[in-house]
Design brief:
mainly alpha; 63% helix; 0% strand; extended
């Protein structure tokens, strides 16, 4: 006896979706990883803000301090080369973190929670700029 597999037909009848994703296991890995990264970053911000003594506080907070501004900078740079956008976003995130730390040290107001609040505010401001810029007539994309 022979097993017959039935492929789910796509819109164009080729067996794959229009965005070249294959049906079956492993197709939703990118959203799953993005959700896990968002959860780890959120946990880091919360652990820093409540001044927890957890051993996960330092790595999760560091991940938040890199991921939040990098994501915001990448949103502003959408439509560009993906590798260049990733490198620029990571470098920009490091610059933002160093400038926030330098400012807090110069003002003699150093605290991890304060740094998280300032970086969060800067990241939200950049996301707002990306949102407003995306609605205008010139969305920043090269055609």
């Amino acid at each position: 006896m022979q097993n017959v597999r039935i492929k789910a037909s796509s819109r164009d009848g080729t067996g794959t979706d229009a965005d070249d994703t294959r049906p079956g296991p492993g197709r939703g890995l990118a959203p799953l990883l993005a959700g896990a990264a968002a959860a780890a970053a959120t946990a880091g911000a919360l652990l820093a803000l409540i001044d927890s003594g957890s051993p996960l506080r330092a790595p999760c907070t560091l991940f938040f301090l890199l991921a939040a501004p990098a994501g915001a900078i990448a949103a502003v740079l959408r439509g560009r080369d993906p590798l260049g956008r990733a490198v620029t976003a990571l470098a920009g995130a490091i610059v933002v973190d160093l400038l926030v730390a330098q400012g807090m040290l110069a003002a003699h107001r150093w605290s991890a929670g304060g740094g998280v609040v300032v970086v969060t505010g800067f990241s939200l401001l950049l996301l707002l700029v990306a949102l407003v810029r995306g609605r205008g007539p010139g969305s920043g994309r090269y055609d």
